[in-house]
Amino acid sequence: MVTFRRINSIESQKHALTRLQDVQEEIYRQLQLLIPDDFAFHDSLESHVAGSPVLRLEALERHAYTTFLRLTYEFNDGDDRSFAPDAHIRFYSDAHLAEATSYNTGQGCDRTAHPSYPPAHLLQQAWRRNRALDRWLDYLLKQGHSLETMRPARRRTRESEETRVFAEIS
Questions:
Q1: How many CB atoms lie within 10 A of CB 63?
Q2: Which of 17, 37, 10 is nearest to 97 (CA)?
């Protein structure tokens, strides 16, 4: 008996990868509507829109064609600040793609890749992270966050400040 299960599985994965790439292209397009040109001169931006928490965008790392970003809401309760959702994004300016490397609806950052995870599992997790980021970016744009509302931040997030201070001490 001849079986085509393996072939169908490969075709299914190709289709899933194509759909994932489509979502990553959409994330890139949506981020283009949020990131002003002068972001190259600032590592931290914030957007204030009525009825919405402060939206923060930070450059964690910059390379020739890739920028690692953090996008999050900032919630203030007196002296306490919290951040959620917490999206870490790899932004490929040459390929016109952006992917969520982590997306956590709570505070913090979860990395989900591991060499022992099967490829289908990793693809499924990537799909979920990127679809969640895609939906959140769509929501942010509908709320009114845009190129015009993004301004240089007065301060960075606490985690970024601690990292910077540690780097200066070393």
A1: 9
A2: 17
What are the φ and ψ backbone dihedral angles of 24, each rounded to 5 degrees? -65, -35
Q: Kindly calculate the radius of gyration of the chain based on its CA atoms and give it in whole angstroms.
A: 18
**CA 143, 145, 146, 150: dihedral to nearest 10 degrees?**
170
Q: How far apart are CA 42 and CA 39, in angstroms?
A: 5
Q: What is the DSSP letter of 38?
A: G
Residues 6+ apart with CB under 8 A from 84: 72, 73, 75, 104, 105, 106, 107
Chain segment 140-165, per-residue pLDDT in tens: 999 999 999 999 997 666 555 454 44
- Asked if residue 88 lies in contact with residue 101, where contact means CB atoms within 8 angstroms, the answer is yes
- The residue type at 87: A
- Name residues whose C-beta falls within 8 Å of residue 155's C-beta, 6 or more positions apart in sequence: 44, 161
Q: Which residues of the chain have pLDDT under 50?
A: 7, 107-110, 161, 163-170
